[in-house]
Amino acid sequence: MQYRRFGRTQIQMPVFSCGGMRYQFKWQDVPASQIPRNNQKNLEATIRRAIEVGINHIETARGYGTSEYQLGRILPSLPREELIVQTKINPSDNTREFQQKFEQSLKNLRLDYVDLLAIHGINDAESLQQSVRPSGCVEVVQKLQAQGKVRFLGFSTHGPTDIILQAIATDLFDYVNLHWYYINQNNWAAIAAATRHDMGVFIISPSDKGGKLYQPPQKLVDLCNPFSPIVFNNLFCLSHSQVHTLSIGAARPQDFDEHLKTLALLEHADEILPPILARLEQAAITSLGESWAKTWHVGLPKHSETPGDVNIPVILWLRNLAIAYDMVDYAKMRYNLLGSGGSWFPGANAANINQLDLQHCLRNSPHAEKIPAILQEAHQLLGGAAIQRLSKQ
């Protein structure tokens, strides 16, 4: 394993982290008696495998159902001083409720303290204000830090870059969990800002939200050859020193194996990546046309500025991935979250696009005239039954 300094925390963070939202029994709390023995044995084997290969950062959340409780059955048997344990609590206007959730997390984990506590889901102005206002969630955590129950405070986010930048600018947080990987590089400005503030940078779900890379289409496999899409994406992310760790949402012990192939290649990333990046870019140009591939994103409105709350940038992005790289399954999965993803995946899909006048909101786009038809095409390609976030299933 390789390790990187996790910003001002000074923690030596493994470049891969063991995320805790895939191996738990349920997304809701259930009595311990309902947790199958085989499920618990698999979780414990997964954690032991992580430790065995040097992944000592174990990450979970109060919102991950039975994950914390199940981890609490194994964590006390491991050397505490060798572990980096992170949990996450959703922000709330009710700070008493926020603190109670944290205390429940600590009880579930059977620990006296956590190394990292993230405010989970600073996705919009409301959740940011709930966190940083006087007597808000941050102040609660600061008191927990004084009590020795939390070492470092961070935040996780699925929100737009401007919200992330506002949160970073407060200088209240030691680290950030955010999305950034090859197919979605929008948050680079936030990573750069985090670096200026000497914050740790944790990349959320690079293999799942980063493209369902564990089930890649053949075209993507061919473009990333001779490496798997997982290894390519890991190399892409970790070739940037500003990135400190990537989450592996392991569901079983062997799920680490493909990722571990990345380690021996890291020092050669500057040689390995350019030809693959060139192939990926050319495939997009060939499939989409050069003008569209390079400028489709220019001048697009936010979903909040669009009639019907339609999330035009996300819809066009997903359509591009489906056409350029055959990532249809991934694009459908994300597209059908629109309308039910809340602040975690906001905006509506294009089901009613032919009833909306988009002329004004598209006035700054060089492709304004053709985008309405492209949105209709995207809905025909990707539309299906609405999908709920995992935590709501």
From TrEMBL:
This is Aldo/keto reductase. Pfam families: Aldo_ket_red. GO terms for molecular function: oxidoreductase activity. It comes from the Bacteria. Residues 27-167 form the NADP-dependent oxidoreductase domain. Gene3D superfamilies: NADP-dependent oxidoreductase domain (3.20.20.100).
